[in-house]
TrEMBL record:
Gene3D superfamilies on file: Ribonuclease H-like superfamily/Ribonuclease H (3.30.420.10)
Pfam families, per the entry: HTH_21, rve, rve_2
Gene Ontology BP terms: DNA integration
Name of the featured protein: Transposase
Record-linked SUPFAM superfamilies: Ribonuclease H-like (SSF53098)
Signal sequence, renumbered to the chain: none
Top-rank taxon, per record: Bacteria
Gene: tra5
Length: 286
């Protein structure tokens, strides 16, 4: 293991210095490097190349579970533990970010409040039975950009979204309209959100009634009642928002569209789905 440490760091520190510090001889290091590459080393080198390719291809968003799932999808048989050890050894890790939960809920109103029909039971067999909805906001040099999203609980697909420079009811209504036009849900769909005025407004409730959807709302101040939606927003912040500095809202809109429509729905392997994409889950359920 000592000689294995020296080789990849030879461009950073002098070999003789590392040998002296580690208590080995330069001739021993030369002999170790001169030996023919073992089958295991060759296999690890090829696996590392594939790991680095997948990690870079997903813009450093994947940790070892998703890298391993992507390798399996390509027909590779390396174990998850081996992939994890290789990534740890070479400092390959997923993007990480701080918890960021801005307050977008204005529940201090006299509008009607719906009961919580989910009660934190987030297992649904088929798409378009339960949709979750929420709002978050993102910083740009022009000011905040507000994002309303609608998530299908069964597939974890973002089926509708809307972006505005405000968070009035128009924002949430546009996201619901997009989801309705794309998915055409059957009567009886449950649409779950927090108690925000945007979701309790008369125009929004009328929109739900028009598609024969049943409103459901979280308990006051309990983010766990909408946990899958919270999880999506957290992932969005870690994988995109914290990696960008947007000069304009239009720049942010373009990146958000690419992330939601291109990466999250079509490419990102989701742990709750057994490491397939939301669109794969939707197709499989059909």
């Amino acid at each position: 293991m000592t000689f294995a440490f020296i080789e990849p760091h030879a461009t950073t520190w002098p070999v003789r210095l590392m040998c002296r510090v580690l208590g080995v001889s330069p001739s021993g290091d030369y002999g170790w490097r001169s030996r023919p590459e073992s089958a295991r080393s060759a296999s690890n080198r090829q696996l590392l190349d594939d790991v680095q390719r997948i990690h870079a291809g997903h813009q450093r968003r994947y940790g070892s579970p998703r890298v391993h799932a992507a390798l399996r999808a390509e027909g590779r048989t390396a174990s998850r533990g081996r992939v994890e050890r290789l990534m740890r050894r070479h400092g390959i890790r997923a993007l990480a970010g701080r918890r960021f939960r801005p307050c977008t809920t204005d529940s201090r109103h006299d509008l009607p409040i719906a009961s919580d029909l989910l009660k934190q039971l987030f297992s649904v067999a088929l798409p378009n039975q339960v949709w979750l909805a929420d709002i978050t906001y993102l910083p740009t040099s022009e000011g905040w950009l507000y994002l309303a999203a609608v998530l299908d609980l069964a597939s974890r697909k973002i089926v509708g979204w809307s972006m505005r420079d405000h968070m009035r009811t128009e924002l949430t209504s546009a996201a619901l309209m997009m989801a309705t036009q794309r998915q055409r849900p059957p009567a009886g769909l449950i649409r779950h959100s927090d108690r925000g005025s945007q979701y309790a407004a008369e125009a929004y409730r009328r929109q739900l009634a028009d598609i024969h959807a049943i409103p459901s709302m979280s308990r006051a101040g309990c983010c766990y009642d909408n946990a899958p939606m919270e999880s999506f927003f957290h992932t969005l912040k870690v994988e995109l928002v914290h990696q960008r500095r947007w000069a304009t809202r239009d720049e942010a809109r373009r990146d958000l569209f690419a992330y939601i429509a291109g990466h999250h729905n079509r490419q990102r392997l989701h742990s709750a789905l057994g490491y397939i994409t939301p669109e794969q889950a939707e197709r499989n359920a059909g």
